């Protein structure tokens, strides 16, 4: 409880601070986004068990330029606390969900993380601001190509993008300290669990399209045992590919 209170106080203080310099036209929008994230965290604390997210996660959310990861015509709502389309039937997730999923990974600055579902690259950028190395996979080639260019242009040199079916993971880069999946699977992909280090965490939405999905936290206790916790209902685009 003491840790939760500390996080809540730190987060509330953070959202009142100037996120960027006074000449940044997006500074106030970022502040509003952080405040909306914190409000949603409070609203969902009964499901998630969290009254606040880690201050370093909130700091990363405040620094990553979300407007760079949405189409130009959506610039005015880039920092709204809701998902937005990024083309090819895909979306950039609600900032609260990005922050929550990142927080659930419980990663430190030395971590190596795998992301499945690059999209426009926003979640990868948030992770890149927090950890040593991010490997991210996207099954839609135009999105993979544009995300790779965007992340490089914005200076996220610790993020590597691969055009491939993420269901099977990226074994040659593993094992990973954490894995995050940003599309809904109808089951927990076994290859991803295999590529987690013992003690590692996998966050994945599971459920059918047009049905209830649940965000799951999979904690790999050791090579034989995992612990699965259901966090809260979510709605994601489906994980696609040639797998069963």
Description of the structure:
The chain has helices spanning 2-15, 27-43, 45-48, 55-63, 95-105, 122-128, 141-153, 190-194, and strands at residues 84-87, 90-92, 112-116, 133-138, 159-163, 176-181, 196-207, 213-220, 226-234. The protein is globular and about 55 Å long. It has a domain at 73-234: Rossmann fold (3-Layer(aba) Sandwich), CATH 3.40.50.150. The strands form two sheets. Strands 5-4-3-6-7-8-9 form a seven-stranded mixed sheet. The longest helix has 17 residues, at 27-43. Mean pLDDT is 92; it is low at 16-21. The chain contains eight helices and nine strands. With 244 residues, the chain is of the alpha/beta class.
Which helices and strands, and how do they pair?
Layout lengths: L1 H14 L11 H17 L1 H4 L6 H9 L20 E4 L2 E3 L2 H11 L6 E5 L5 H7 L4 E6 L2 H13 L5 E5 L12 E6 L8 H5 L1 E12 L5 E8 L5 E9 L10
Parallel strand pairs: 3-4, 3-6, 4-5, 6-7
Antiparallel strand pairs: 1-2, 7-8, 8-9
Helix pairs in contact: 1-2, 1-4, 2-4, 2-5
